[in-house]
């Protein structure tokens, strides 16, 4: 289903996302894979790696808190895999509002931007951490 398609991965430089990119390359022949994340160093290191320097990858700096930037990045995108997140539990307990801005408001921005730009489908990851207080 991803052959010839353009896929945008939010948080594309993370551990899940890089493995996801490897699997996409192994199983499909996409037109383009856009990595959307904040840190230019992680993006440039990923771009320099032989696995991701095939010409299929585009590196887009952006923050899921910024809906206009997401809309720009999603132009002509077929599928979005939303994996950008903050996930360290101690940091969440100390900085709850920052986690709400990225994990909740950011997810809403991804959905809104996908609807606004006509993305066919968004696949969103659930957090792999759960805590009880
Ligand atoms: N790894 C697993 O095995 C696994 C399993 C189940 C679920 N998950 C879930 O999958 C998600 C990703 O996990 P991960 O292990 O890949 O985490 P990770 O290695 O910490 O990667 C997180 C990614 O999100 C980006 N990011 C963070 N805040 C952002 C923002 N505001 N805007 C755009 N990008 C942002 C980070 O890049 P920048 O810092 O450069 O922006 C990075 O690329 C989490 O929700 C996690 O709970 C992971």
Task: Please provide a written account of the structure.
With 133 residues, the chain is an alpha/beta fold. The chain has a single domain (6-124), classed as Rossmann fold (3-Layer(aba) Sandwich). 43% of the residues lie in helices and 18% in strands. The chain contains 5 helices and 5 strands, in the order βαβαβαβααβ. It has helices spanning 15-27, 40-48, 67-73, 89-94, 96-117; strands at residues 6-10, 32-37, 57-61, 79-82, 121-124. A 5-stranded parallel beta sheet has the order 3-2-1-4-5, with helices on both faces. α1 (15-27) links the parallel β1 and β2. The radius of gyration is 15 Å and the shape is globular. The relative contact order is 0.18. The mean pLDDT is 94. Bound molecules: NADP nicotinamide-adenine-dinucleotide phosphate. NADP nicotinamide-adenine-dinucleotide phosphate binds at residues 10-17, 37-39, 42, 63-65, 83-87, 102, 106, 125, 127-129.
